[in-house]
Amino acid sequence: MRATGIVRRVDELGRVVLPKELRRVLGIKEGDPMEIFTDNAGEIILKKYDNGREVGEKISDLIDYIKDTQGVPDQDAVLRLLNEAGVIVGGKK
Fold this sequence. Notes:
The protein is of the alpha+beta class. About 40% of the residues lie in helices and about 10% in strands. The protein contains 3 helices and 2 strands. The model has no long low-confidence stretch (mean pLDDT about 85). Keywords: DNA-binding.
């Protein structure tokens, strides 16, 4: 983890202000969802929420589930099966 040398105080509502320059460099805009994690060392990790990554992981889990439970041999076969069922995959039906 890279130190920035920036220190901020927590206000009475538990908020911490992220400096404007840091938000600009990291592409964080007002209203952006953020994820909060803690590690074993007791450090707080703040990360811009990536919904696309979560959706991709869920799709991958679904493909694995279909392969395991339906006897479908591989990912391409699962995608063909979904296409035949009329499910939109990758922007195509």
